[in-house]
User: What shape does this take?
Amino acid sequence: MADAQAIFDSYAHDPEVTRYLIWRPHNSVADTEEFLRGHLVRRQTGAEEFSWVLTLKDDGRLVGMIALHPGEYRVGLGYVLARAYWGRGLMPEAARALVELALAQADIFRIWAVCDTENLASARVMEKAGMTREGVLRRWSLHPNVSNEPRDCFCYAKVR
Assistant: This one.
């Protein structure tokens, strides 16, 4: 909960950052706190989700989040990065580390993620993380900041 203000200030309120995400920009720190409470409840009830805040090495400033969502033999990947840090190679570095971590687990054979077909920057992050585009999932995900209807998404994965 102590990170709520930093998350809000860094990226959660920014409509450009949240444009292709599955949630709307937060209107207040209270929205961010509600998000964090929901996350904590899921963790306490046994939901397997591993999330990390991303901070800068030099000053510890919070700049984003990244998460793994384990399944039976596969792991989903999700991430968000503050706009001020786009294009610096931070997210490909973080994503690559989690791709390697996930596939190093004996019972994980696939790590995968999707992005809106218009979100070419996110597609590039996954490619730089060593993932391969497998195709387009038609009408796969609702991105409410772009449309009220499900949108096509690229599917990326790395397998072992």
